[in-house]
């Protein structure tokens, strides 16, 4: 039995015997009920659900009753209105501001190990940068699973907290986004300092990588190293093979070599 299966069985077993008279705050603490509240983001208010195990959901704020129904249908747990614990709220805000080390525990019960590996790799992408689906597939040791990576990102239950918006299509185009569609994805990326129109213009020109004529290092275009290059030193490339043939070596920070391999 996998860890995911064990957690699912544990949760179902506990849920079956949870005394009805227990107060919600106790059930929330042990992970049998979730609380939810709103938090402001670049997309407006977002519902965040959590329990004693961690954050379990994030979605655009709208009808609270509809969110609770959808959450219960997805997780099997009731969701009740609550107030975010101060420490958790601060950690989420830090995460949204780009602090990847902010301690935001996650409750990902019911999701596969593959999905969770995809989401954990997305967490490594810095604010204001993007990586292609194929990079994640390669980094988790599943280079042929590009389509499956896209599907897993589309099922991310905690978007923004796990920044699936920082993953783009392999051809460099922005791509879809589960939290309200491509326009919302562009809004978030712009709020993080990127220019989605310029990114897609680069993609149309076939510029997948950019190298520095001074350091002879080649990066993904949004890598902080690549973005600091002076215009007259920038050398665009269609492939890492082209860059290497021209004498450039892959950046060790954004690791384009993983995708090429």
Structure characterization notes:
The chain is α/β, with parallel strands linked by helices. It has 3 domains: 3-96, 2-Layer Sandwich (Double Stranded RNA Binding Domain); 111-200, Arc Repressor Mutant, subunit A, CATH 1.10.10.10; 205-261, DNA Methylphosphotriester Repair Domain, CATH 3.40.10.10. Helix content is 40%, strand content 16%. It has helices spanning 3-17, 24-29, 64-75, 86-96, 113-122, 133-139, 146-154, 182-191, 196-204, 224-227, 240-245, 256-260, and strands at residues 34-41, 44-51, 54-60, 79-81, 131-132, 167-168, 209-212, 217-219, 234-237, 249-250. The strands form 3 sheets. Strands 3-2-1-4 form a 4-stranded mixed beta sheet. A 4-stranded mixed beta sheet has the order 9-7-8-10. The chain is elongated. Residues 1-18 have low confidence and may be disordered.
Low-pLDDT runs of 5+ residues are 1-18
Determine and state the CATH class of the largest domain. Answer: Alpha Beta
Helix content bin: 25-40%
Taken from the alpha-carbon principal axes, the silhouette is elongated
Secondary-structure element sequence?
A: HHEEEHEHHEHHEHHEEHEHEH
The computed structural class is alpha/beta
- CATH level-3 fold name of the largest domain: Double Stranded RNA Binding Domain
Count of distinct strands = 10
Give, in spatial order, the strands making up the sheet with the most strands.
Answer: 3-2-1-4
- N-to-C CA distance: 32 Å
How many separate helices? 12
Query: How large is the share of residues in beta strands?
Result: 15-25%
Main β sheet profile: 4 strands, mixed
Mean pLDDT: 91
